[in-house]
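Table S2 (continued). Query chain:
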Amino acid sequence: MKKFTVTILFSVVLLSSCSHYYYVADTQNVPLFKEKDQYRLSGTFGFGDESNCIEAQAAYAISDKIGVLANFMSAWGGDVSDKDYGRGTCLDGGIGYFKPIKDYGVFEIYGGFGGSSQHHEYSGPHYDSFTGTISTEYEGSSDLAFFKLFIQPSFGVTYSVFDFIASARFSSLSFMSVENNIYGNTYLYDDLNSISNNGQFFLEPAATLRGGWEKIKVQAQISYIWHLNDRDLDIGEATHFSIGLVFTLAKKSVKATP
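Corresponding output:
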């Protein structure tokens, strides 16, 4: 009975510890341009099951068919006081093609590259068989960075007060400069070594809703992340939500009423 009780207690402690994700997808930048010299600027707060982040995005239509974009994210999660947390920044940019379809539709596809740098600290439950107690012990740290390539097609409908966009991003991550200083937890140690030896690929469908006025809208987005390599290697946060404001500037306003 004692052994059974200890097993249950250990499972509860283990499940309550921080999950370390090495890829937290940023909000997908979907500008839905319709003409040259339009600008989109946004600021959002994002979150998932373990992370929180702040994000800033910008996009500009350099011609009537070509746009450029840039994204920045600072993310964090876990418990700093317990030395079981992760934090990092991500910066990426791209260029793409957009095409208005009739009065309200827009198709666009962007591709680009970027990178992330991260720092992680690890602590976990350890069972002392001599005393029969469970305590939290420090298990080390890691510092890593990855290089990212992405391609992102999307289709949306845009009105003066309402936008809806469906998008899907394909991301390829190459981890580099991995300093694996984890000890006392072979599972975490082996996972980190595994991702540093192979490229990681993700498919990320997303839905975006914007509503408000022509030049300022509230934006909400949800995206889901499929790890295409090894489903058992849990390195990416599966769901990402974000909410914030999007500002639209243009030399000429694009008038569209539903």
